[in-house]
Amino acid sequence: MRNLLTTLLTIVLLNGLLVPAAAQEYFSQPPTQHITSFGFRMYSGGVVTLRAKLNQYPDSLTFILDTGSGGISLDSSTVDRLKIPTVATDRTIRGIAGIKKVRFSYNNSLHFPGLTVDSLNFHVNDYEILTSVYGEHIDGIIGYSFFSRYIVKLDYDTNRISVYTRGSIKYPKGGFMIRPNLATIPVTTNRIREESKISTRFFFDTGAGLSLLLTEDFIADSSMYSRKKKFWTTQAEGLGGKTFMKLTTTKEFRIGPYKFRRVPTFIFEDEFNVTSYPYLGGLIGNDLLRRFNVILNYERREIHLTPNRHFREAFDYAYTGLGFYFIDGQVTVTDIMPGSPAENAGFKVGDIIIAVDNNMSRSIQAYRSMLQQTGARLKFLVVRQADGDLEELYMKVGSILKKKK
């Protein structure tokens, strides 16, 4: 229930004089109560994962925490492995790489440390590509169905999430309040500057492992970039599979009063109308949002941001043109962009990466972090798919800040 203000005009006798006075009554919610706090893990690009148990199953599962999800979902292989009952529906979900009909599993519970969330209706989707990207099995995505029930604080200084009951809350000092449009996904209005200043709407998307994503339609209609602007062809992952994008930088992007300069920006053709252009120009991802400690109060349509210790960290300007995924227990090269540092280094599709600079962990996260060192010359030990030979390859990591040759 929103705060209601009732003003009662009364007459007060003061020193023998009749004085009109105003008395105010506030009908407000009870104060929010802390329920629980526990740790989260942050992957490359800022994507956050939580561990939770489903129903009566004893093993913990891994979920991406995603404000860009309008519900809650389970991976199809997890559903098959646990033999979770599902029901076919005519409902569809859409993402940057496709539209799919989905099955549902109804009336489930998730058990977090100190918190059980029940009556959850999961839609079922194939997250094999997310598992390949992060090198760890992704069992599902937690979105609106969770955020809408609580006040949720994400503290990127300590990598902890805190969950509170809905109610009146006193926000910390030194931050800024965003009041998004909110049906199931928060939409904020932000200002972007390249050749000129433009204000438009964006999804507020913690599940996107990037800084900024714009649509081709928005770029074309706004004439935001000059013809001299340099772009790099690269690849990204989304619902339905892989898709190719352009990569560049944007001179300035604002979130409330906070300015970010030379922001890495992906540009994609919104073939499946995910952004309902011209309603949205794109989305803000978690490599920007993780620079704030965030309080999400969906009931009040409030998002409070406080700059944290990551606020002034450098963006990832690295460019390699090398696509690799965790497939059947191996870090496998899947794509090589023409003219990229990876092509110049001699990589081939199907190469299995055994080590990067003597790191033989086969950790996707570790390898991606090493490839974020712009200008670094890295040594790769790979096994060739064709003959099984071991080869050493050397690649200098490029930067999107430098002019394309």
List keywords for this structure.
405 residues, mainly beta, six-stranded antiparallel β-sheet, six-stranded mixed beta barrel, 10% helix, 50% strand, disordered N terminus
Structural class: mainly beta
Question: What is the straight-line distance between the termini?
Answer: 59 Å
| Helicity range | 10-25%
**Number of E strands:** 31
Main sheet record: 6 strands, antiparallel
Report Rg.
24 Å
The proportion of residues in beta strands is: over 45%
The side-by-side strand order for the widest beta sheet comes to 3-13-12-23-24-14
What is the averaged pLDDT score? 89
Low-confidence stretches: 1-23
Please tell me what the overall shape is: globular
Count of separate DSSP helical elements = 7
